[in-house]
Amino acid sequence: MFEAADFIIDEANPEVVIVAFDRSLTYEKLCRAAWHLHCGVPGVATHPDCFCPTDQATRLPDCGSITRCLEAAAGVTLQVLGKPDPGMLRLAAARRGVRPEQTLMVGDRLGTDIRLGRNAGAHTAWIAATESEWEDCSGVIPDCRIQNLGELQQLLEEELGK
C-alpha cells in the first residue's frame, strides 16, 4: 500500500513509524517499531479502533490495540491522524468537488467512522449487526442505521427513485 503511493519503506532508519491495521503483524515488527519509537522516531496511528468487527468467531486486534501496545513498550504517546478527525473526509470531498454536507459517510464503527462523518458535517449511515456498540457510543447518533450494504443500496434506490 505505501509503496504504491511512492513511500519508501526503510525499516532500519525510518523517519516515522506508522501504525495501522496489519494482518501480517509479527512480534518482530512490534519490537522494531517499539525500539524506533523509544529512540525518538515520531509515530502516528491511522485510527483508535481497538478491534475490527467481523462475522467470524474471532476477535481481530486493530490499530488502537497495536498503538496501546507500542505506547506502553516505548514509553511514548502516538498521534492519531485518521478517523474520527474530519480532515480526511473534507479532503476526499474537496477532491471530488463537493462539500462534506453533500457526502455520506458509511461505516461500521460509531466512535470513529460515524463520529468522523458527524465531525465533518456529512450524512452518516451506520452498518450495525448488533446493539453492542450502540451502548458504547451513546453520544454518536447516525442519520440511519442499516444491517448491510444491500440495505443501503435499496434505501438509496428508493430515495433516488422519488
Automatic annotation (TrEMBL):
It holds the Pfam family Hydrolase_like. InterPro entries: HAD-like_sf, HAD_sf. One of its GO terms (molecular function) is phosphatase activity. GO terms for cellular component: cytoplasm. Signal peptide: none annotated. This is 5'-nucleotidase.
